[in-house]
């Protein structure tokens, strides 16, 4: 629920039933709390006829008969829309002035349309709608006697959904226990997809039941629509008050929610270095805002000690440890429970070194494409006891060595020579302070020189590529441009495209990093990304493409192109196994829903994935949990009309917390976010025409203090629910465990994408509006962004 759960009482009764041969009104219940594809919304299906039979029942007043009237379809829709608005406002704010105003507007509209029975006036009916103000006697947790079952006495009541059974039985009048009105209705529901909310009038407690459920409400007054008309079967939506409500459901969330325990202080702190070897305890502070007693369990890896205890109050606790070793990383895991919620925290620390430390190798360990003409190897030595050191360096194959004694903290170099391109090398550093030894082994692979002329190394052809500066509004640094072309000349390149090379000039020049998304030698089709150090907005940028070298090294280096990106998904390989992340961060995905090679289709940029809107999606490890700012973008195409998530983060066992970006109904750009147990539901949307069946680029930027949204390269301002803008909320404000593309996980898969997705990118930095505009200009029309010149053969 958004806001506090309802603490209202037993009141009025009004049941509207819409029966029509001319219009088939449908209600697929809608939660103001959680935006889901399978949650429900009002849906009218107009026919060629223009009138409907409208029936009104009044409960809580004796002698009242059902009142039928023929109304134009537009009047029925107007009444229903006002009913929907009243329903949600009464759920969230039953005592508000807006609720009273909407009640008066609904009754006024009924009166205006002659829909009120003759035996009751608008004022009399309004008296049945007045909400008694009963002061809660206490504010305690509602603990259900059975798992997944909850009940409330004297409560507000909202239920909506669709299922196989929904009887409404009018009972004889109850024995009066209050002043009029007198309850007369029993409601029973048994549904596959439902949402029921109850707030206790006197208890100050309540619950929300989700998904498949069955329940009963005794002594009901309220407003509702129910019908069973193909193809929309057994659908309902009710809001009102009940003497007693009981629900059994797949998932139930109680109010007030239990406050989980907290781990507030640790010693050592997470990530601490130089922890003394003499440390003999790990300390941590725990507390519970509800005052619940807690149990904890602590384990370590490597094992240096563990401990557990139960029935503990707020305080600082510790476990003994022993056997710490020098310059070693230790992990300790704390688990705390209050009997209802369990929290966990994993921390690391590194002990102080007693032996010398070797750091900052250059080339970095495992580095590829190292220039073959590097003059030296380099590393840093440090001894934390300030002892004099002795070191020696050897290489394999032998390209140089060195030995020195009596050195102190500093950076040291080893001259090397005789390297060849395409070779693998290892180098060994040994250092001692006279008592303790340290040994490190590093490796690297060589490429071509720092600067070189490709024609001197076997390349046969070159083309000039000119980037139109008028396509940019400002200079961009380290910008990956898209080159997408079908060029018969490229049929001269190798079958794998490995000899395609980009340089910043002709002759002796510097290589530019690139990532090949797609290459087809038989047609000369090339889709590649080239990282440009400086892309000018005042002068055309000129680069050069070389090809035709059967014996060259494989020249693409995706990791260098996407340095600074957390994940890049080209979606250019069939989703039959791993979905590849091209950044080198290994944030790879897993396809779901039985996706096959048939899901790989022609995309906006090369190939892309077709999602069926039923069960297709991709899941990932939660690699964004530590990010507090960044950018998320994707190319999308759909003509589907329901809510769909491009990117989602949720919880596998619960409807919230969640965060997702995508589209709402119609063509609305949508962002939504909710946190468990708080009134922090944020929903922003803007009609931009997304569901028109053509490609669009959507982007979301968070700077840590504000959110910004872009559609086709232009910034758009979302309209926020209740005017609540979440400002700079990014991924890391959510305690989620399910990251997905093509759906949102909320205890199930919701908001499934129906259509195409391509080129999904996530960075850990907020990109600029000018960067987003340049991306759109380049990717929407690569041929208009740059020009590829004629072929120039080598000498």
Please tell me about this protein's structure.
- This protein is mainly beta.
- The chain has five domains: 242 residues, no CATH class; 90 residues, Sandwich (Immunoglobulin-like), CATH 2.60.40; 82 residues, Immunoglobulins (Immunoglobulin-like, Sandwich); 110 residues, no CATH class; 200 residues, Jelly Rolls.
- Helix content is 8%, strand content 48%.
- The strands form twelve sheets. Strands 35, 37, 38, 40, 45, 46, 47 and 52 form an eight-stranded antiparallel β-sheet that branches. An eight-stranded antiparallel β-sheet has the order 36-39-49-41-42-43-44-48, with no helix packed on it. It has a six-stranded antiparallel β-sheet with strand order 27-31-30-34-28-53.
- The chain is flat.
- The N and C termini lie far apart (73 Å).
- The N terminus is likely disordered.
How many beta-strand segments?
53
Report the major sheet. 8 strands, antiparallel
Average pLDDT works out at 82
Rg of Cα set: 33 Å
Tally of separate domains? 5
Overall morphology:
flat
Low-confidence residue ranges: 1-49, 132-146, 165-180, 228-233
Oligomer: single chain
Tally of individual helices: 6
Give the N-terminus to C-terminus distance in angstroms: 73 Å
Helix content: under 10%
Query: Which structural category fits the helices and strands?
Result: mainly beta
Residues in β-strands, percent: over 45%
What keyword list fits this structure?
795 residues; mainly beta; Immunoglobulin-like; 6 helices; 48% strand
């Amino acid at each position: 629920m958004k806001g506090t759960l309802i603490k209202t009482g037993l009141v009025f009764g009004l049941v509207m039933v819409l029966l029509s041969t001319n219009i088939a009104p449908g209600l697929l219940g809608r939660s103001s709390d959680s935006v889901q594809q399978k949650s429900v919304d009002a849906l009218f299906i107009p026919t060629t006829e223009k009138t409907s039979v409208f029936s009104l029942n009044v409960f809580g007043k004796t002698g009242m008969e059902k009142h039928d009237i023929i109304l134009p379809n537009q009047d029925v829709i107007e009444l229903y829309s006002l009913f929907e608005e009243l329903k949600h406002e009464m759920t969230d704010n039953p005592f508000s002035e807006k609720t009273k105003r909407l009640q008066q507007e609904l009754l006024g509209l009924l009166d205006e349309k002659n829909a009120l029975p003759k035996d009751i006036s608008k004022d009399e009916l309004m008296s049945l709608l007045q909400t008694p103000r009963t002061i809660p006697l206490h504010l305690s947790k509602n603990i259900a006697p059975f798992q997944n079952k909850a009940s409330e006495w004297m409560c507000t009541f909202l239920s909506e959904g669709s299922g196989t059974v929904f009887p409404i039985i009018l009972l004889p009048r109850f024995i009066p226990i209050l002043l009029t009105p007198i309850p007369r209705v029993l409601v029973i529901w048994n549904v596959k997809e439902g949402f029921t909310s109850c707030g206790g009038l006197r208890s100050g407690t309540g619950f929300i039941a989700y998904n498949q459920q069955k329940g009963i409400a005794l002594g009901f007054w309220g407003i509702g629509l129910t019908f069973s008309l193909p193809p929309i079967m057994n659908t309902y939506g009710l809001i009102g008050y009940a003497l007693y409500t009981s629900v059994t459901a797949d998932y139930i969330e109680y109010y007030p929610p239990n406050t989980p325990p907290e781990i507030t202080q640790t010693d050592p702190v997470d990530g601490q270095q130089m922890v003394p070897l003499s440390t003999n305890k790990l300390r941590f502070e725990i507390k519970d805002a509800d005052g619940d007693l807690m149990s904890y369990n602590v384990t370590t890896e490597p094992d240096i000690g563990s401990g557990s205890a139960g029935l503990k109050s707020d305080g600082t606790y510790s476990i003994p440890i022993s056997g710490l070793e020098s310059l070693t990383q230790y992990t300790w895991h704390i688990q705390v429970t209050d009997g209802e919620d369990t929290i966990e925290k994993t921390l690391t620390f590194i002990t102080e070194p007693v032996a010398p430390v070797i750091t900052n190798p250059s080339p970095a360990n495992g580095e590829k494409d190292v220039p073959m003409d590097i003059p030296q190897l380099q590393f840093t030595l440090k001894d934390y006891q300030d002892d004099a050191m002795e070191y020696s360096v050897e290489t394999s194959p032998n390209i140089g060595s060195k030995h020195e004694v009596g050195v102190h903290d500093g950076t040291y170099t080893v001259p090397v020579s005789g390297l060849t391109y395409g070779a693998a090398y290892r180098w060994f550093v040994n250092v001692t302070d006279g008592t303790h030894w340290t040994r490190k082994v590093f490796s690297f692979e060589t490429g071509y020189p720092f600067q070189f002329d490709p024609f001197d190394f076997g390349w046969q052809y070159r083309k000039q590529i000119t980037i139109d500066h008028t396509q940019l509004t400002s200079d961009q640094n380290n910008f990956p441009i898209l080159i997408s072309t079908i060029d018969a000349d490229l049929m001269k390149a190798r079958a794998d495209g490995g000899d395609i090379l980009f340089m910043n000039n002709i002759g002796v020049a510097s290589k530019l990093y690139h990532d090949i998304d797609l290459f087809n030698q038989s047609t000369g089709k090339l889709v590649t990304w080239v990282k440009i150090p400086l892309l000018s907005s005042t002068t055309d940028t000129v680069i050069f493409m070389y090809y035709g070298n059967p014996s060259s090294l494989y020249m693409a280096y995706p990791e260098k192109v996407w340095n600074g990106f957390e994940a890049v998904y080209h979606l250019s390989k069939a989703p039959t196994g791993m979905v590849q992340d091209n950044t080198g961060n290994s944030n790879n995905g897993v396809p779901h829903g039985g996706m096959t090679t048939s899901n790989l289709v022609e995309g906006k940029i090369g190939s892309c994935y077709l999602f069926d809107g039923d069960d297709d999606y991709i899941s990932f490890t939660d690699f964004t949990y530590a990010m507090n700012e960044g950018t998320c973008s994707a190319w999308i195409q759909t003509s589907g009309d329901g809510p769909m998530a491009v990117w989602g983060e949720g919880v596998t066992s619960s409807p919230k917390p969640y965060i997702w970006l995508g589209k709402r109904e119609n063509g609305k750009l949508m962002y939504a976010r909710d946190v468990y147990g708080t009134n922090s539901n944020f929903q922003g949307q803007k009609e931009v025409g997304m569901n028109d069946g053509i490609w669009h680029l959507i982007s979301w930027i968070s700077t840590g203090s504000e959110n910004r949204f872009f559609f086709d390269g232009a910034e758009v301002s979302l309209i926020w629910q209740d005017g609540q803008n979440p400002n700079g909320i990014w991924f890391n404000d959510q305690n989620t465990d399910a990251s997905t593309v093509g759906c949102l996980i909320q205890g199930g898969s919701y908001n499934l994408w129906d259509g195409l997705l391509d080129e999904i990118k996530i960075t850990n930095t907020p990109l600029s509006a000018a960067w987003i505009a340049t991306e759109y200009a380049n990717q929407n029309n690569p041929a208009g962004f740059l020009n590829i010149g004629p072929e120039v053969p080598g000498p």
